[in-house]
């Protein structure tokens, strides 16, 4: 251990001290030199370890963010142009003229973590005015890049005719026998 000098140093007028002003002591009276630098280094190291521990860790999760049911005409279009206003106007036009409707399309926005990305199926269950039992549509889906997580499921004209007017729907994402995400309409 380092020895302290025995000569007192003056650090101010009329004030004698047993050790230089740059030396400090801990609560037990032991000298510490540069303790602030070690404290900051330790704090930064712990902070770096704490923040770095969570990097790259993604919890297994799945979510269905949005479900958009659209009527489609006999040519398979749900809008005449890419404008949202035009899409809504064309949907109102198709609701007013059921003879022009050629089916229904569900656009589903979903996401799932990498851990759950294998063997996924999208299931859509529908209740309508034309049939008392639930109509179920199912198709396999694959995890795609973050900018393209939309899946489209088309209800053909024959099945749409059996369904009648859509009352309620439920969309679920399945991995094997386990349902990992779900979204349903208000009336389901």
Descriptive terms for the model:
alpha+beta, Immunoglobulin-like, three-stranded antiparallel β-sheet, 188 residues
Question: What secondary-structure arrangement, pairings included, does this model have?
Answer:
Elements: E1 9-12, E2 15-17, E3 24-25, E4 31-32, H1 35-53, E5 62-73, H2 84-96, E6 101-112, E7 120-128, E8 135-141, E9 150-155, H3 157-163, E10 166-175, E11 178-184
Antiparallel strand pairs: 1-2, 3-4, 5-6, 6-9, 7-8, 7-10, 10-11
Overview of this protein structure:
- The protein is α+β, with helices and mostly antiparallel strands.
- It folds into 2 domains: 9-50, no CATH class; 62-184, Immunoglobulin-like.
- The chain has helices at 35-53, 84-96, 157-163; strands spanning 9-12, 15-17, 24-25, 31-32, 62-73, 101-112, 120-128, 135-141, 150-155, 166-175, 178-184.
- The strands form 4 sheets. It has a 4-stranded antiparallel beta sheet with strand order 8-7-10-11, with helices on one face. It has a 3-stranded antiparallel beta sheet with strand order 5-6-9. The chain has a two-stranded antiparallel sheet with strand order 1-2.
- The longest helix has 19 residues, at 35-53.
- The N and C termini lie far apart (77 Å).
């Amino acid at each position: 251990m380092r020895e302290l000098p025995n000569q007192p140093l003056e650090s101010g007028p009329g004030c004698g001290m047993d050790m230089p002003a740059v030396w400090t002591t801990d609560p037990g009276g032991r000298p510490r030199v540069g303790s602030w630098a070690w404290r900051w280094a330790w704090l930064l190291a712990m902070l770096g370890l704490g923040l770095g521990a969570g990097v790259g860790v993604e919890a297994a999760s799945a979510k269905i963010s949005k479900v958009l049911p659209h009527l489609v005409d006999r040519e398979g279009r749900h809008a005449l142009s890419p404008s949202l206003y035009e899409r809504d106007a064309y949907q109102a036009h198709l609701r007013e003229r059921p003879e022009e409707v050629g089916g229904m399309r569900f656009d589903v926005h979903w996401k799932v973590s990498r851990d759950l990305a294998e063997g996924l199926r999208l299931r859509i269950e529908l209740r309508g005015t034309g049939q008392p039992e639930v109509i179920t549509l199912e198709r396999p889906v694959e995890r795609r890049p973050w900018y393209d997580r939309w899946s489209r499921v088309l209800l053909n004209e024959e099945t749409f005719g059996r369904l009648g007017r859509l009352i309620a729907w439920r969309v679920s994402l399945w991995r094997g026998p386990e349902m990992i995400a779900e979204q349903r309409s208000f009336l389901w």
